[in-house]
Amino acid sequence: MTTTKTIWEMLGQIPVGTIFAWGAVTVTIVTVIVKGVMKLYDYFSKIRKLKEENEKLASMVKEHDETLKQINEALSEIKQALQDQSEYDLKQIRHTIIMSCYEALTAGEIQFEKHKSLEEMFEEYTEKFHGNGYVADLMERVKNVPIVGSPDGQAHIG
Question: How far apart are CA 18 and CA 31, in angstroms?
Fold first, then answer.
Protein backbone atom coordinates (compact mmCIF):
# COMPACT_ATOMS: atom_id res chain seq x y z
CA MET A 1 0.00 0.00 0.00
CA THR A 2 1.23 3.31 -1.02
CA THR A 3 0.56 6.34 0.89
CA THR A 4 0.82 9.68 -0.64
CA LYS A 5 1.02 12.59 1.59
CA THR A 6 0.64 16.12 0.53
CA ILE A 7 3.34 18.63 1.18
CA TRP A 8 1.17 20.22 3.81
CA GLU A 9 0.82 17.02 5.67
CA MET A 10 4.59 16.51 5.60
CA LEU A 11 5.20 20.04 6.80
CA GLY A 12 2.58 19.57 9.44
CA GLN A 13 4.61 16.75 10.94
CA ILE A 14 7.73 18.94 11.42
CA PRO A 15 7.80 20.41 14.89
CA VAL A 16 7.36 24.21 15.04
CA GLY A 17 10.60 24.63 16.98
CA THR A 18 12.55 23.00 14.16
CA ILE A 19 10.93 25.29 11.62
CA PHE A 20 11.85 28.34 13.73
CA ALA A 21 15.38 27.00 14.19
CA TRP A 22 15.79 26.50 10.45
CA GLY A 23 14.27 29.91 9.81
CA ALA A 24 16.70 31.51 12.28
CA VAL A 25 19.64 29.67 10.70
CA THR A 26 18.52 30.77 7.22
CA VAL A 27 18.08 34.39 8.31
CA THR A 28 21.50 34.29 10.00
CA ILE A 29 23.15 32.88 6.89
CA VAL A 30 21.43 35.43 4.65
CA THR A 31 22.41 38.23 7.07
CA VAL A 32 26.06 37.12 7.11
CA ILE A 33 26.11 36.90 3.32
CA VAL A 34 24.49 40.34 2.95
CA LYS A 35 26.94 41.89 5.45
CA GLY A 36 29.87 40.20 3.67
CA VAL A 37 28.69 41.48 0.31
CA MET A 38 28.24 44.98 1.77
CA LYS A 39 31.77 44.87 3.24
CA LEU A 40 33.16 43.73 -0.12
CA TYR A 41 31.22 46.51 -1.84
CA ASP A 42 32.61 49.08 0.63
CA TYR A 43 36.13 47.69 0.20
CA PHE A 44 35.96 47.84 -3.59
CA SER A 45 34.37 51.29 -3.42
CA LYS A 46 37.30 52.50 -1.33
CA ILE A 47 39.76 50.94 -3.77
CA ARG A 48 37.94 52.57 -6.70
CA LYS A 49 37.96 55.92 -4.88
CA LEU A 50 41.68 55.60 -4.10
CA LYS A 51 42.37 54.69 -7.72
CA GLU A 52 40.45 57.76 -8.92
CA GLU A 53 42.31 59.99 -6.45
CA ASN A 54 45.59 58.44 -7.52
CA GLU A 55 44.75 59.13 -11.17
CA LYS A 56 43.87 62.74 -10.32
CA LEU A 57 47.16 63.16 -8.44
CA ALA A 58 49.08 61.59 -11.32
CA SER A 59 47.35 63.98 -13.71
CA MET A 60 48.18 66.97 -11.48
CA VAL A 61 51.81 65.86 -11.24
CA LYS A 62 51.95 65.53 -15.01
CA GLU A 63 50.47 69.02 -15.43
CA HIS A 64 52.92 70.45 -12.88
CA ASP A 65 55.81 68.72 -14.62
CA GLU A 66 54.73 70.25 -17.91
CA THR A 67 54.43 73.68 -16.29
CA LEU A 68 57.89 73.31 -14.72
CA LYS A 69 59.28 72.25 -18.08
CA GLN A 70 57.82 75.39 -19.69
CA ILE A 71 59.20 77.55 -16.86
CA ASN A 72 62.65 75.98 -17.26
CA GLU A 73 62.54 76.59 -21.01
CA ALA A 74 61.55 80.22 -20.42
CA LEU A 75 64.32 80.62 -17.84
CA SER A 76 66.84 79.14 -20.27
CA GLU A 77 65.74 81.61 -22.92
CA ILE A 78 65.99 84.49 -20.43
CA LYS A 79 69.42 83.29 -19.31
CA GLN A 80 70.60 83.15 -22.91
CA ALA A 81 69.17 86.61 -23.59
CA LEU A 82 70.95 87.98 -20.52
CA GLN A 83 74.22 86.37 -21.61
CA ASP A 84 73.80 87.86 -25.07
CA GLN A 85 73.02 91.26 -23.53
CA SER A 86 76.05 91.00 -21.26
CA GLU A 87 78.29 90.23 -24.23
CA TYR A 88 76.79 93.17 -26.09
CA ASP A 89 77.31 95.44 -23.06
CA LEU A 90 80.94 94.32 -22.81
CA LYS A 91 81.54 95.12 -26.48
CA GLN A 92 79.71 98.44 -26.18
CA ILE A 93 81.66 99.55 -23.09
CA ARG A 94 84.95 98.39 -24.63
CA HIS A 95 84.18 100.29 -27.83
CA THR A 96 83.22 103.45 -25.93
CA ILE A 97 86.41 103.31 -23.83
CA ILE A 98 88.64 102.73 -26.86
CA MET A 99 87.00 105.52 -28.89
CA SER A 100 87.23 107.95 -25.97
CA CYS A 101 90.88 107.05 -25.43
CA TYR A 102 91.69 107.51 -29.14
CA GLU A 103 89.87 110.82 -29.12
CA ALA A 104 91.82 112.03 -26.08
CA LEU A 105 95.16 110.79 -27.43
CA THR A 106 94.49 112.38 -30.84
CA ALA A 107 93.38 115.69 -29.30
CA GLY A 108 96.22 115.67 -26.78
CA GLU A 109 93.78 116.53 -23.99
CA ILE A 110 90.61 115.33 -22.34
CA GLN A 111 87.73 117.16 -20.68
CA PHE A 112 87.47 116.68 -16.91
CA GLU A 113 83.93 115.22 -17.04
CA LYS A 114 84.83 112.94 -19.95
CA HIS A 115 87.90 111.73 -18.05
CA LYS A 116 85.82 111.07 -14.95
CA SER A 117 83.23 109.16 -17.01
CA LEU A 118 85.98 107.23 -18.80
CA GLU A 119 87.52 106.20 -15.47
CA GLU A 120 84.11 104.98 -14.23
CA MET A 121 83.51 102.95 -17.39
CA PHE A 122 87.00 101.46 -17.21
CA GLU A 123 86.46 100.52 -13.57
CA GLU A 124 83.22 98.71 -14.44
CA TYR A 125 84.87 97.16 -17.50
CA THR A 126 87.65 95.67 -15.39
CA GLU A 127 85.58 94.70 -12.34
CA LYS A 128 82.40 93.41 -13.96
CA PHE A 129 83.69 92.19 -17.31
CA HIS A 130 87.32 91.44 -16.38
CA GLY A 131 88.59 93.57 -19.25
CA ASN A 132 91.72 92.93 -21.27
CA GLY A 133 95.22 94.41 -21.33
CA TYR A 134 94.80 96.42 -24.53
CA VAL A 135 92.18 98.70 -22.97
CA ALA A 136 94.28 98.96 -19.80
CA ASP A 137 97.29 100.08 -21.88
CA LEU A 138 95.16 102.75 -23.58
CA MET A 139 93.91 104.00 -20.21
CA GLU A 140 97.50 104.25 -18.93
CA ARG A 141 98.38 106.38 -21.95
CA VAL A 142 95.30 108.59 -21.38
CA LYS A 143 96.39 109.21 -17.77
CA ASN A 144 99.35 111.16 -19.19
CA VAL A 145 97.08 113.41 -21.31
CA PRO A 146 96.27 116.86 -19.84
CA ILE A 147 92.80 117.17 -18.29
CA VAL A 148 91.02 120.39 -19.23
CA GLY A 149 87.95 122.07 -17.86
CA SER A 150 88.51 120.84 -14.33
CA PRO A 151 86.39 122.17 -11.47
CA ASP A 152 89.26 124.32 -10.18
CA GLY A 153 89.77 125.85 -13.66
CA GLN A 154 93.35 124.60 -14.18
CA ALA A 155 94.69 121.99 -16.56
CA HIS A 156 96.10 118.85 -15.02
CA ILE A 157 98.51 116.31 -16.36
CA GLY A 158 97.90 112.69 -15.30
Answer: 19
What is the domain partition of the chain in residue ranges?
A: 20-157
Tens of pLDDT, residues 97-134: 999 999 999 999 999 999 999 999 999 888 887 777 88
pLDDT category, 152, cuts 50, 70, 90?
A: low
User: What contacts 122, CB < 8 A, 6 or more positions away?
Assistant: 97, 131, 135, 136, 139
153 CB burial (10 A radius; 0-12, 13-18, 19+): exposed
The two beta strands, 156-157 and 146-148, are antiparallel
Entry pTM: 0.55
**How far apart, in whole angstroms, are the C-alpha atoms of residue 47 and residue 78?**
46
Q: How far apart are CA 103 and CA 95, in angstroms?
A: 12
DSSP 8-state assignment for residue 14: S
Label residues 121-145 b or e (16+ Cβ within 10 Å = b): bbeebeeebebeeebeebbeebeeb
| Nearest-angstrom CA–CA distance, 149 and 110 | 9
